[in-house]
Design goal:
Elements (H helix, E strand, L loop, with lengths): L1 H17 L23 E5 L11 E9 L4 E7 L2 E5 L4 E7 L3 E4 L6 E7 L17 E7 L1
Antiparallel strand pairs: 1-2, 2-7, 3-6, 3-8, 4-5, 5-7
Length: 140
C-alpha cells in the first residue's frame, strides 16, 4: 500500500511540474522583464621576452582592455635592473614611461622600454637580470 501511495504522489508531482503556469492579465496586454549582464574586467598585456642592455628597445603592449568606467590600467616597472654574473653585479638604468590605458579604450596602447648599457663592471662576461613589470587596474 505504501508503495502505491508513493507512486501516486510521484506521478502527481511529475504531472504538476510539467504543467505550464497561466497568467491572467486582461488589463495588461504587454509585460516585460529585466535583462542583465555583468561584463567581467579583462585585458591582455605583454612585455618583451628579452632585452639587451645598450641594445634595441622593446615594446610593452596592452589590448582588449575592458574595465570599469572609473578605472584605468597602469603597467609599471622599476627605474633600474640589477645585472649579475658569477663574480660581479651592476645596475643598469631602465627607460620606460609606463603605460596607462583609460577605460573605454579597448584597443589599448603600447610604450617602448629599453635598458642602458651598465657601467662599473669589474669582469668581462655575460651579465643577466630580471626586470619585473606590474599591471594593475586603479581609480582614475
Amino acid at each position: 500500500m505504501k508503495k502505491r501511495i508513493i507512486a501516486i504522489a510521484t506521478a502527481l508531482t511529475v504531472f504538476a511540474a510539467g504543467m505550464g503556469v497561466t497568467s491572467f492579465a486582461a488589463d495588461e496586454p504587454n509585460q516585460s522583464t529585466t535583462v542583465s549582464y555583468t561584463a567581467v574586467q579583462t585585458f591582455t598585456w605583454s612585455v618583451p621576452a628579452t632585452l639587451t642592455a645598450g641594445g634595441a628597445a622593446g615594446t610593452v603592449e596592452a589590448s582588449n582592455v575592458i574595465i570599469a568606467s572609473d578605472k584605468k590600467l597602469e603597467i609599471t616597472t622599476a627605474d633600474e635592473v640589477t645585472l649579475t654574473n658569477s663574480d660581479d653585479s651592476v645596475s643598469a638604468a631602465v627607460t620606460f614611461d609606463g603605460l596607462t590605458v583609460n577605460a573605454g579604450t579597448t584597443a589599448g596602447g603600447s610604450e617602448s622600454v629599453s635598458v642602458s648599457a651598465p657601467t662599473g663592471f669589474k669582469y668581462a662576461g655575460t651579465y643577466t637580470g630580471t626586470l619585473q613589470f606590474t599591471a594593475s587596474v586603479v581609480n582614475q
